[in-house]
């Protein structure tokens, strides 16, 4: 039997260009009997086999039970082994964890069917469900929860049964809600997704938001077109010097990644030998693997932070809670005040995502725009999307190196401090 390690697990979980797993397989663990990694076309799970003690009501022995422990993409091998051992211990003590879990689920469904659920309880269930999901990013999921709860609060329907939310109340909310047009869109969109959740769970028979005519739904706002100058970006660089997440902010100024792509970067996605990062398809907005060469300035930040023994699944830029950083609003409030934009209107003040627009705008006259678009990892359609499969890595590298030089000059930043090295990271 092949020895199973986290490295072999990672190899079995490789995805292809279409986002599915390359090779479906079933692999037994050599350390914990009955534990296996089951990789299908689109899903990978940990399962454990066991035989309950005793006999059935008809006197026959219990059949072998296969119990799902969790999603292999979010549960590392050590956790799967711990969970499998816990199941086996419970079985040894006379328990049947799979049957108990199934009975608990059936009881919850039965209770929900006979007991009217209020919208307040339903939105709490929605919150629990959203927090357990893997996508979109945690920040996006928490934003969806926030606006769904806000919609229930503004409507004043927390104590109403789930089937009492009517179209008239939603129309009134949209017409009378205080706040910007963007906030109204967020609230309506979150409310519609929350109603979609209730529909999927069988709490309601139809999504009332779908009954609202499109002409009455909140309209999308004007696309943002603010392009920060190089001088402004240099001020931002200096403004984050004293911030705990300084390295992450600097890395985003140098590499035009999206917030969640950089904040969720782990050490296993960095190739120090070749000087690039490789982000898997499941973490990308376009669901395609993204390879990005690093300028010497960006690589210097990662080298300085690199622990002596970096585990592949550990975050490069963890927040104080050890999770991907999501305090961008507070950070940007301080940055804007520092660069003189504290009172600037929304469309004339700096946002991290604007770095991507500046990157293309300042380099458009020096590089083919298609190559710059590949750096941004945009979804590409038409002839380009179907037939142009070259990664154009040399051009990407030249563009990113020139961008770093324009932003900071030719030298590697001298304010990079060595990251505290911990052998147990």
Produce the secondary structure layout.
Layout: H1 6-12, E1 25-28, E2 35-39, E3 44-50, E4 65-71, H2 77-92, H3 97-114, H4 119-132, H5 138-155, H6 167-176, H7 181-200, H8 230-239, H9 246-254, H10 259-263, E5 270-271, E6 276-279, E7 290-293, H11 296-305, H12 328-338, H13 354-363, H14 369-376, H15 382-387, H16 393-408
Antiparallel strand pairs: 1-2, 2-3, 3-4, 5-6, 6-7
Helix pairs in contact: 4-5, 5-7, 13-14
Molecular structure report:
It contains 16 helices and seven strands. With 425 residues, it is of the alpha+beta class. The chain has three domains: 6-111, Double Stranded RNA Binding Domain (2-Layer Sandwich); 119-216, Orthogonal Bundle (DNA polymerase, domain 1), CATH 1.10.150.130; 230-408, hpI Integrase, Chain A, CATH 1.10.443. A four-stranded antiparallel sheet has the order 1-2-3-4, covered by helices on one side. A three-stranded antiparallel sheet has the order 5-6-7. β2 (35-39) and β3 form a beta hairpin. The protein is globular. The model is unreliable at 414-425 (pLDDT under 50).
Shape: globular
Structural class label: alpha+beta
Radius of gyration: 26 Å
Which CATH class of the largest domain? Mainly Alpha
Defining traits:
Double Stranded RNA Binding Domain; hpI Integrase, Chain A; 16 helices; 7 strands; alpha+beta; disordered C terminus; 3-stranded antiparallel sheet; 4-stranded antiparallel sheet; globular; 425 residues; 44% helix
């Amino acid at each position: 039997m092949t020895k199973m390690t986290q490295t072999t697990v990672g190899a079995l979980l490789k995805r292809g260009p279409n986002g599915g797993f390359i090779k479906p397989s079933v692999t037994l663990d050599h350390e914990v009997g009955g534990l296996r990694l089951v990789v299908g076309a689109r899903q990978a799970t940990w399962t454990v086999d066991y035989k309950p003690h005793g006999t059935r009501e008809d006197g026959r022995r219990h059949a072998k039970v296969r119990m799902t422990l969790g999603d292999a993409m979010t549960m590392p091998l050590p956790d799967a082994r711990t969970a499998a051992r816990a199941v086996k211990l419970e079985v040894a003590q006379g328990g049947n964890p799979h049957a108990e879990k199934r009975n608990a689920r059936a009881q919850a469904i039965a209770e929900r069917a006979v007991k009217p659920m209020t919208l307040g309880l339903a939105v709490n269930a929605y919150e629990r469900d959203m927090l357990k999901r893997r996508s979109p990013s945690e920040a996006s999921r928490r934003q969806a929860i926030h606006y769904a709860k806000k919609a229930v609060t503004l409507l004043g329907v927390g104590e109403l049964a789930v089937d009492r939310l009517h179209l008239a109340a939603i129309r009134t909310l949209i017409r009378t809600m205080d706040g910007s047009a963007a906030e109204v869109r967020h609230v309506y969109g979150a409310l519609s997704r929350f109603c979609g959740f209730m529909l999927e769970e069988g709490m309601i028979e139809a999504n009332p938001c779908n009954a609202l005519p499109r002409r009455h739904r909140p309209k999308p706002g004007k696309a943002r077109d603010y392009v920060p100058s190089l001088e402004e970006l240099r001020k931002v660089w200096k403004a984050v010097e004293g911030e705990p997440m300084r390295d992450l902010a600097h890395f985003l100024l140098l590499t035009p990644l999206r917030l969640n792509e950089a904040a969720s970067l782990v050490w296993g996605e960095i190739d120090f030998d070749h000087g690039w990062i490789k982000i898997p398809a499941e973490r990308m907005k376009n669901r395609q693997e993204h390879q990005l060469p690093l300028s010497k300035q960006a690589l210097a930040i990662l080298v300085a932070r690199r622990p002596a023994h970096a585990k592949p699944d550990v975050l490069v830029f963890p927040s104080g809670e050890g999770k991907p950083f999501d305090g961008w609003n507070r950070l940007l409030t301080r940055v804007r005040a520092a660069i003189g934009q504290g009172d600037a209107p929304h469309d004339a003040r700096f946002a991290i995502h604007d770095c991507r627009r500046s990157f293309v705008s300042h380099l458009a006259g020096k590089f083919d725009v298609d190559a710059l678009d590949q750096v941004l990892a945009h979804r590409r359609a038409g002839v380009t999307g179907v037939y142009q499969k070259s990664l154009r890595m040399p051009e990407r590298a030249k563009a990113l190196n020139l961008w770093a030089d324009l932003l900071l000059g030719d030298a590697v930043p001298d304010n990079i401090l060595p990251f505290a090295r911990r052998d147990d990271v």
